[in-house]
Design brief:
By secondary structure, the chain is mostly beta strands. Helices cover about 10% and strands about 40% of the residues. It has one domain: Methylamine Dehydrogenase, Chain H (7 Propeller). Strands 4, 5, 6, 7 and 8 form a five-stranded antiparallel beta sheet that branches. A four-stranded antiparallel beta sheet has the order 3-35-34-33, with no helix packed on it. The chain has a four-stranded antiparallel beta sheet with strand order 9-10-11-12, with no helix packed on it. The radius of gyration is 22 Å and the shape is globular. The two termini are about 30 Å apart. This is PQQ-binding-like beta-propeller repeat protein.
Amino acid sequence: MILKNAFGGSRILPAIAWFFLGVASVTVSAASTTSQFEGNARHLAFTPDKIGSFDTFIGQHVIAPPSVDGETLLVTTGKAGRRQEGQVLRVDARTGAIVWRTSLNNMTMTQAIVAGHDVIVGLGGKRMFAVNAGYSCRSRFPHAIAALQAATGRLAWEYATHCQDMPTPAYAHHEILTPTGGGRFIALDARTGKLLWQIPIGGWSAMSSPARVGSNLYFGTDDLFTHRNDFYDIDWRTHKIRWSRNFTHTVNLAEASPVVRGNAVFTAFMRKDSYDLWDILVHLWKHTPMRDFAFEVVSLDAVTGRLIHRKSIYTRYLSPRAWIHERIISSEIYWKNWVVAALRKMSHAIHLPALFSRMRRPDPTHPGIYDPPLTAWRRIIYVEPRLTKRLYALDARTEKILWTFRTGVDISNPNIYHGALYMVNAQGILYVLDARTGKLIHTEKLATGMVGPSDGLLSPHAFVVGGTSGNLVSLPIRHLGTVDGVDENTR
């Protein structure tokens, strides 16, 4: 009997289709150019190309991992504050010398991807408070998808969007594919920047970069007004939503970039359950702890969206008085911003564009990122919620926690080569672990500052990573230690 599957067309054996999709993913990861976030749907940022040792001062925060294009690296940066801006740089991969540098009028928090003769980045680095057709963005700086000429760095085209563009777009068949901060999933002509098609989505994607496998793109969204926190699978060939799944009481489904392993897609989020007045009074009377939040990792069937596993890896409890105090303080901090966002939402409903006051509250010391991208290697899923200060390794089949390692505050995901796991925390401390057991192999302090919200780039020769110090560091990995018996990176 011939069956229909959600990938379109007919199939006899589902495993055969997934085998070829897996091969395609491996092929992408080994390519010299990047067509999606970190090069593949498992977030193993690896290149077989030769990379030298260097320490180059870029001058702005390096936020995403560099991309490889031939014998050069493409680096994106951002600078927050009163004068918010970003840059894209082409750097010689052997010497660290800057080939060209292009300044942009907003932060570039995406990884650069290569589309033909152009380099594609997204502009925007501030959060918004509602999905409201562009009237609810916090940032006063422009939001756009931009293409730069790969040879010169000159602007080739720019497509303005409603709200920030922080997820790294995907590139397929001459199309730039990305969710935006304005409640849309868009496809642009990679050669001209012209809008080809778009799909309304029930929220914004903050930093959930689409994981692409075949014609499927997986990512998460948030909407604080409607509490519609949806995870999507969009088919870029048919321009339709294959499936979506809502997760209630989540607050940052739009942050973690998901990974795909086999026939399952994995993502993570923070859940904040609500209490009614009676529950609060009962907890006060009995002096029993209340849940402040819980971090969860979920796996979904990549074809149907069916929930496979849901694992809570960390839960924080507060006393009733502390819980109430935390909620009051949070409301007090954000009350004025919520009022402005609500007014914008109402004004848009009656077609009155109301652009209210600028948000002058300074950025926090640590970015508001709770769930960095996930990483998938062999049969292990790695996730590191910032507030737990730990890296968790989970069995991909059962989501059982295999081991944990205390890293300190971190907003980046790990990377793996030859069985050795590399990660750098917020203090610029590099940890090299055995990816299977979590055993510490090597540690040292780097001159990067905080790294994230993504990992560094690995090659057989070097580990390349940048951070808030503005330094792009490439150090040889020979002296960092190896894991015996592991001689591959992609399986």
